[in-house]
Design brief:
Number of strands: 13
CATH topology of the largest domain: TIM Barrel
CATH class of the largest domain: Alpha Beta
Structural class: alpha/beta
Strand order of the largest sheet: 7-1-2-8-9-10-11-12-13
CATH superfamily of the largest domain: Aldolase class I
Helix content: 25-40%
Number of domains: 2
Largest sheet: 9 strands, mixed
Distance between the termini: 37 Å
Order of helices and strands: EEEEEHEEHEHEHEHHEHEHHE
Bound molecules: iron/sulfur cluster
Strand content: 15-25%
Radius of gyration: 19 Å
Length: 278
Amino acid sequence: MKALINRIIPFSNVDGPGNRCAIFFQGCPLHCAYCHNPETWRICDHCGRCVAGCPAGALTLRAGKVVWEESRCVGCDQCIHVCPHHASCKVSELTPEALLDRVAETFPFIQGITVSGGECMLYADFLTEFFRLVKAAGKTCLIDSNGILDFRQYPELLQLCDGVMLDMKAIDDDFHRQLTGASNRQVLDNLTLLLEAGKLEEVRTVLLPEFSEQNQKTVRGVNERLQGKIRYKLLRYRPFGVCEEGLRFCGRTITPLEEAQRLAQAESDRGFHNCVVI
Ligand code: SF4
Ligand code: SF4
């Protein structure tokens, strides 16, 4: 059993509570307009277009496959900029045991690990095995997910994980489709399931500068489901790193702080004091 790992951040304090090792998996079924990492969407098809532009000679085409030499890579991301497929050649294909070997040296300094993406639930069976190993080492395991795959299908994984940080991109299904390319029905089912199972660590919504009405609708709808019991992060949209198509949809400005604070205050006035503006 193997998974494609895009990136490992050994120490992060923005991927869940405490100091955590964050692991980003390659591949995502959604294509959100505001995605900051569109290179995690698809799996490299080894077309070879990025090889010639690598200034460090870290990429070679061998037997029809692009091979990335991590030790030569200078991290310029030129390969990502030229890739026409929203893919990355800078991925490692690892077994659960090999991934544990990669991250184990962080364990004396962290509270736990967080798996993210792309969409890490694409690798649910891998995660079940990996979480078993991490839990045996005494660390907590969090899942950061867009909720597009059915958590009900993976009861063992749900039991092993300590919590899920769930994206709720829009409560209006039509708008969710415009924003991500998919319906939000499964996300809402997962929200209910995780809430009832006591596995919802937090919910996050990105507030868009040009969609005030949708922002308000989503925040109100989500909080009515959460009843203020779970931390709800309102993330201000930032255009940095968003692709041209995404910028056309979401705009080129940062969501004003006042708008996010006004939404949080309105929720607080309704008795829901769980909103945090980021
Ligand atoms: S980031 Fe990509 S283009 Fe830049 S050195 Fe590394 S492999 Fe080469
Ligand atoms: S990363 Fe993109 S450009 Fe490079 S070989 Fe893979 S699919 Fe082609």
